[in-house]
Inverse folding.
């Protein structure tokens, strides 16, 4: 029997760990149940940190962890999924193709930044969506030091005032001063189509966020969007022109395109609708998890967000349940009643909230310390030691805060 997992992000990593854990508990050998993980590189990109400086350092190796738990790594990109014949076609960096059959499939392909057809966005916009994108932005920021200090050299427009946009915008003043000199006066402007920044955070945390933006000198333009970009700036839907040599697009994400090959119902973000076991009910043998799945967290109408916090726990349940079906043991319904947010606010600290109503529990330096622990410890892979790696993936205990 073979379980194939597509994706080496947080959901894919924990799916592999959890499936291997259940296999170990049930006393099955790797020959009896092969677990194969397909990804271009055996590396976890720490995506929640890509707004930081030195993004090239924000990865963690997975090969030794996978080897320690007897998970096969298949290097390449999954290009085609045939759910009728239960086959996945993988293309390698060398241009060759291989085909993997599966008895169960876990789709953990993550999400991508939504890039609308705005004039100039493809040519002139940067992002922190992927490692390559974040590295390209970092190189661009460093190149500003060689340009004349005029027009919009020191101005950055961040399109999108959600979580990613705010974390990028509040970090950028310090990053630019490090590059341009301590006397530099960077200008960072958040453009948000909604009536306020952090539209999903609610009235509790928002005043704290807005106060942090004021302290950092980050400007906002709300109720407007970016109409077009060129090499010297942006034009907003309000008609305002902002001279800026750097535009960071941070407005919305969607499930990765590969999910479209699964013949099943999706939501407006492209996520596959799944049942309590994270099974794509209309497609036998297929599970979806992380940003590729729309899953109910509880019975109160709350659904998993496209976040690292939800992806890790969803991945653990999906891997466990896919393996459970093959091993003939009961599955575990996914649930995630505990939900917290910890939003980085750069030199202004952070804000930590608990619950779907986002009750503020910590602010400033105290919250910042928690954010740094999350970013540098909690979300990294377990050490490559079999017992510890398997123990980390108990679905009932992953990311309980």
């Amino acid at each position: 029997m073979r379980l194939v997992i597509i994706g080496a992000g947080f959901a894919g990593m924990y799916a592999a760990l959890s499936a291997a854990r259940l296999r170990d508990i049930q006393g099955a050998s790797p020959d009896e149940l092969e677990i194969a993980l397909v990804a271009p590189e055996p590396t976890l990109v720490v995506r929640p940190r890509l707004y930081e400086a030195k993004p090239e350092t924000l990865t963690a190796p997975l090969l030794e962890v996978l080897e320690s738990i007897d998970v096969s790594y298949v290097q390449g990109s999954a290009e085609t999924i045939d759910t009728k014949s239960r086959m996945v076609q993988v293309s390698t960096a060398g241009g060759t193709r291989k085909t993997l059959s599966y008895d169960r499939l876990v789709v953990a392909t993550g999400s991508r930044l939504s890039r609308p057809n705005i004039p100039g966005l493809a040519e002139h916009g940067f992002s922190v969506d992927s490692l390559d994108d974040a590295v390209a932005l970092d190189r661009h920021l460093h190149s500003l030091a060689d340009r004349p200090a005029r027009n919009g050299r020191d101005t950055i427009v961040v399109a999108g005032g959600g979580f990613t946009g705010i974390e990028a915008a509040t970090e950028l003043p310090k990053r630019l001063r490090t590059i341009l000199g301590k006397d530099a006066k960077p200008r960072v402007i958040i453009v948000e189509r909604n009536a306020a920044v952090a539209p999903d955070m609610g009235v509790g945390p928002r005043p704290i966020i807005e106060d942090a933006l004021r302290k950092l000198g980050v400007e906002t333009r709300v109720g407007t969007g970016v109409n077009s970009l060129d090499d010297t700036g942006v034009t907003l839907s309000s008609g305002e022109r902002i001279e800026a040599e750097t535009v960071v697009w941070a407005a919305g994400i969607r499930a990765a395109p590969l999910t479209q090959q699964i013949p099943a119902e999706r939501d407006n973000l492209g996520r596959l609708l799944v049942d309590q076991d994270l099974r794509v009910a209309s497609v036998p043998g297929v599970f979806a998890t992380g940003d590729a799945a729309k899953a109910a967290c509880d019975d109160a109408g709350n659904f998993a967000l496209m976040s690292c916090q939800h992806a890790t726990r969803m991945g653990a349940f999906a891997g466990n349940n896919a393996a459970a079906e093959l091993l003939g043991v009961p599955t575990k319904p996914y649930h995630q009643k505990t939900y917290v947010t910890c939003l980085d606010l750069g030199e202004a600290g952070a804000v930590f909230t608990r619950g779907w109503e986002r009750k503020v529990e910590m602010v400033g330096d105290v919250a910042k310390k928690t954010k740094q622990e999350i970013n540098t410890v909690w979300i990294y892979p377990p050490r490559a030691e079999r017992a510890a790696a398997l123990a980390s993936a108990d679905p009932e205990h992953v990311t309980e805060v």
The first strand starts at residue 2 and ends at 6.
